[in-house]
Amino acid sequence: xxxxxxxxxxxxxxxxxxxxxxxxxxxxxxxxxxxxxxxxxxxxxxxxxxxxxxxxxxxxxxxxxxxxxxxxxxxxxxxxxxxxxxxxxxxxxxxxxxxxxxxxxxxxxxxxxxxxxxxxxxxxxxxxxxxxxxxxxxxxxxxxxxxxxxxxxxxxxxxxxxxxxxxxxxxxxxxxxxxxxxxxxxxxxxxxxxxxxxxxxxxxxxxxxxxxxxxxxxxxxxxxxxxxxxxxxxxxxxxxxxxxxxxxxxxxxxxxxxxxxxxxxxxxxxxxxxxxxxxxxxxxxxxxxxxxxxxxxxxxxxxxxxxxxxxxxxxxxxxxxxxxxxxxxxxxxxxxxxxxxxxxxxxxxxxxxxxxxxxxxxxxxxxxxxxxxxxxxxxxxxxxxxxxxxxxxxxxxxxxxxxxxxxxxxxxxxxxxxxxx
Length: 421
Hints:
By secondary structure, the chain is α/β, with parallel strands linked by helices. The chain is 29% helix and 25% strand. The protein has two domains: 4-31 and 282-412, Lyase, Ornithine Decarboxylase, Chain A, domain 1 (Beta Barrel), CATH 2.40.37; 103-274, TIM Barrel. It has twelve helices and 21 strands. The strands form three sheets. Strands 4, 14, 15, 16, 17, 18, 19, 20 and 21 form a nine-stranded mixed beta sheet that branches. Strands 5-6-7-8-9-11-12-13 form an eight-stranded parallel beta barrel, surrounded by five helices. Helix 6 (127-140) links the parallel strand 8 (121-124) and strand 9. The protein is globular.
């Protein structure tokens, strides 16, 4: 569910007409609903009711400071994957004890940053990382709390570019070697083993891969405890998918996911962490763009819009589907015509949809890409010297720009020309 609905003939974000926002900030722009973000966080929190748990928002899905501030106010922890994300979380008021540091390539500088500022745990991905973390912590006279990310070799049945739990993926250590690596960790100075981490991928639409992975984690927990390790926390990752295409079978609900967690690992007496990102922010955002031209081609027609692949890379990168709807509510039963919906960047890959049935749309009309709140703005760029587009947050009847569109002058003045040119 989201809070982007037609009212009085126009798409609204909560109680704000989308055309009103467009008139104020210009197009294209991202628009997020605070009510939707809040509801989605609470669904996960409530799904784990009865378990000692923390819902850590995966910041990589959408790391705008306003979103983080909203999440933090609800009680969320943060899952970060870089020093920059760590600093964003701290700037949003998230205490270190609610920040989990994930990622396969943590540097010594990032480790020091987190140890100085406070950290809930490092999710260690490899033996070299473990050794470096020990060296950094010992040199600082600090102790680094860790889980070790195990790779359970489970097929997440998702897009190959966002699968992370198979043997050939770069993430974690093979679960078959976990006892050996935990023994190494326990012998290292500056390291405190507190739990196990697993994350098998993103945009999962079935529960079975989760169940396979979590049952393996449950068995490993018992083995490691028998070996003398204190395993008090299980980080189960994120990855639950969202319905990008409304005609598809809906992915499992957070309540079903929570029931699975309770069934597979709920009897181990561990604190449970989960790290949802996409399901919290994905359907909480739309991308609004204006039609520049309606163009007739050889055997196909095009809607050329002012958003481009640099604003929303997912269709070009993953072949991702987004529902695309006119902001002006179409009449009931109106005939639809197939259009290729494309942007102005000079690449064929700058295509959002092919042969997408649309109601009659003219130049100057606004259209909205649904489910654009995750991996939209955070993956955008200034390719073709196109400014990063505004982000807007709506709360009931009010809205605010939470990232402004830079001017061309600001973009160009970031460059430095050597004196010898």
